[in-house]
Structure formats: structure tokens, C-alpha cells
Amino acid sequence: MEINRGVKLGISIIFLSMLCLFVGQKLLNGLINLEFENSKMIQGTWVGAHKAYNGHLSPFPSIFDFKPEGILNHLIVGSDYNEGLAWSIDNQELSLDTFNFNLIALDNDKLSYQSGNLTTMVRLRSPLTNRSKSELDDLLANSVWSNTKGDKSFEFSDSTATVSRNGNLEIRCWDSFAYKNYLLLFFIENKSCEGAAGRIYQVVDFSENRLILLGNNELESGRIVLTRQKDMPIVDQNSDHFQLCGFYAGRSHLSVSDAHEMGGRFIQNTFSENFQCNASWKGITGFLRLKFMVNCEGKTGMLSWQTMDKFYKSMVVPTSLTDHLEDIFELTGNWKPLERNDYIHDAWKSIIFKIEDGNLVSIAP
After folding, report:
1. CB burial class (10 A; 0-12, 13-18, 19+) of residue 239?
2. How far apart are CA 146 and CA 229, in angstroms?
3. For 252-301, how does the pLDDT look when each residue is reduced to its tens digit (9 = 90+)?
4. How far apart are CA 248 and CA 11, in angstroms?
5. Cα 246 from Cα 53, distance rounded (Å)
6. What is this structure's pTM?
7. CA–CA separation, 350 and 143 (whole Å)
8. Is residue 175 a contact partner of residue 79, using CB atoms and an 8 Å limit?
């Protein structure tokens, strides 16, 4: 009996060992096949932007052209072009020249990798084989375009473009460039119209009255169909308006008192002294939170409201109340930009108003 048990145990051990070898080989083959498939899938031309600090957090658009031989051509838009770099994929690690990244996602249309900030690339498609950069430049100069909803428009002069999204304006320098048979638009972050930080779009198609862009930036992803507008009023590009200094929405910064030249007491006094109760607000009790952005120049904009009852549940208040508070907010002025680690940032701030029966009873800056 003991011998039979020993034989059975030995057979079991041999069987388990063979099974482990079989499974291990399958897993190894799977990893090899995955690396092979990823190496095939990544080949082609991709466009995207990585985030880095440039006085504030900025996007730096790039074009990656992955060749089958493990060779990479890399264009930093508005800056350098490097040919003959090396690339490879080892398991979930993507190597680009001397840099290694974690490969997050890869399919036919999207490539994401990370080492610190996440970078997402999209594959360039629909080359414009019979169209030129000069044709595009001539079409766009001194023209206005908007989407069907009317909430997004682009107004181009010879060198600058006014971009409007949901009523928010920004003025940026623009340029177009060609890579192989692809045409792209580049909106430059820096007001001097220099540098490699900015926002990029692929031009999928264009005609006299239609412009189709493919966005892959911090604001949008996907197709943008624009129609030429002939009667749209021209925006005064010299007018004073609010816009972010960078392309990202900025950091949170909780201390509003520290962000104002006169301090928190001044903000409280300004609202207390100028608030005028309206009979139509009677019965309103709760908390109103005003969120706003202070850009690197100390200007304020991008105001939004969160309104809650005394139980902190969402409630609707008359726009006349929030409009009145915004009018008083305009009197505050003298905001300071956020400085951290030798950089000046666009930053979010908020003020909370406590309302009882339509009266302003306290302000928490």
C-alpha cells in the first residue's frame, strides 16, 4: 500500500510539473504574442501632447512616426525634429529613445502612456494628398467659422485667432504646418507667438465653406465640423477680456484671503456694504458658492455657481440674486496670481455666501 501511495504521489507531482510547464509556456507565448501585436499596432503616425511646466502647466504637442524597424521619427511642434530614434515595447513598457514609460492603452486609434503625467496620442488618418498648406492658409486668413450649435467659433486673422467656447474667449497665435500628407493647425500658448506649447488639431478636410478638424487636446477629442460665417460680428482682438494664461484649468487654491491684495476682511466688507436685499428673494435660505478663476495676470473670470439649501442639497435660486452678487464681486479687484515653485499659475478660488430668508448673513472667503 505504501509503495502504491508513493507511486501515485510521484505521478501527481510529475503531472503537476508538466501542467505548470504547459501553462507557463502558454503564458510566455501569450506575452510574446502580445508584444508582437503591440509592436505591429503601434506602427504608423500619431499626434498628441504631453504636459510639462512652462511657467504653468502646458501641453507640448508632438508627432510620433513609428517605423517597423524600431526606428522613431519625432517632431516637437514648433521646435525640434529628430529622426532615427529607437523605440521598443517590452511587456507593458514603452521605450522611446532613452526614456521608458508605462504603456496604459493601445488600439488602432489610441495610444496612452505614462511616466508622471498621462499622455494620450491619436493615430493620424485621412491624409490630404492633393491639398497644400498655402491653400489652407489662404482660406483661413481673415475668416470666421462656427459649429452647428453655435457654441464654438474660430475667427482667424493673418497671425492670431479668437476662439470662442460657450461665451469664453481666448486669443492665440496660430499657424498651420504639413507633415507628410497631413495638415495640422497649431494654436500657440505664448502671447509672443513663439514656443512649442500649444493646442493642435488635424485638418481632415476643407472647402470654401466647410472646415473639418480632428481634436486631441485638453478641451476636446473627436471631429469638429465648422461652417464659414459671412455675417458674424468681428470680435475686437484689442479689447480687454479674460483668458487663461495656460491651456489647463489651473490648480485649486483654497485661501481666497491670501489671493487678494487687501485680504479677506476687505472682501467681506465689500459684500456686506453693497448687498441690497430684494423682496423677491424672501424665503431663500441656504449656501451659495461662487467659483472663479484668477489667471496669471490677476484677472478673474470663468464664474460658476453651486447653490444649496440649509441641508446642503441642491436648490434653484433666482438669477437676479446671483447676478447681484456677481456685480458686487466686480468691485473687489486687486487679485493676486498664485505663485508656487517659481511658477505663476492660473488658479481656482471660491467664496461661500450664507443666505437666510433672502438676506446675506455671512461670507466665507
Report:
1. exposed
2. 7
3. 665 777 888 898 999 999 999 999 999 999 999 999 999 999 988 889 98
4. 64
5. 10
6. 0.73
7. 38
8. no
